[in-house]
Amino acid sequence: MADRKGNKKKAIVEALLKQKGKSYDEWLDEKYSEYITENADALLSALNFNKG
């Protein structure tokens, strides 16, 4: 059931992005970059922790 909901959401997002002339992959890449930037402190902390 979760897959169906996810697929519906993805289809809606893809349709909205298409109207704006943007691809889903382009939008998704932006979201990944935003998430990494927003969580840079946690990422750096985890990397430094692994260095031991």
Précis, in short:
This protein is mainly alpha-helical and 52 residues long. The chain has one domain (2-51).
Structure write-up:
The chain has 52 residues and is mainly alpha-helical. It has one domain. Helices cover 87% and strands 0% of the residues. It has 3 helices and no strands. It has helices spanning 2-19, 24-38, 40-51. The longest helix has 18 residues, at 2-19. The chain is elongated, with a radius of gyration of 16 Å. The N and C termini lie far apart (42 Å). The model has no long low-confidence stretch (mean pLDDT 90).
Number of helices: 3
Average pLDDT score: 90
The main β sheet shows up as: none
Question: What is the CA-based Rg, rounded?
Answer: 16 Å
End-to-end Cα distance, whole Å, is 42 Å
**How many distinct folded domains?**
1
Protein structure class: mainly alpha
Strand and helix map with partners:
Elements: H1 2-19, H2 24-38, H3 40-51
What are the main properties of this structure?
0% strand, 52 residues, 3 helices, mainly alpha
